[in-house]
Amino acid sequence: MRGRRFSPLKGREVSGAVMSLFEENAAILAALKAEGHDLARPRAVDFSHLFDDRASADTFALAAQGQGFSMRVESYEPEPGRWDVTASRVMEPSCRNITDVEAQLSEFAGRHGGCSDGWGFFDA
Prior knowledge:
Ribonuclease E inhibitor RraB
């Protein structure tokens, strides 16, 4: 069973204020810590991306793998014909680390025709 996915909706409005990606990730991590998750030790953090075709998904996966990420490409069940590509890396799950990697991968996915679809601890 896969763990929860946290969707980074950069610029999401909360109570009339727009949250940055960093602020949203900080809020998610604070909630996880309050639930008792150990965020002090390195662990696999999984970053999901959606693509409209398999070729783009595979190209992104191969390129990200070359940057040291473990990759998984799967059909995206909620939307047939789309592809879910998960890039995983063991890291300290700090807000700065997650936000930096998320922004890097989001920009990289965009260059390959994809978009970010959140992050999580899917094997937790």
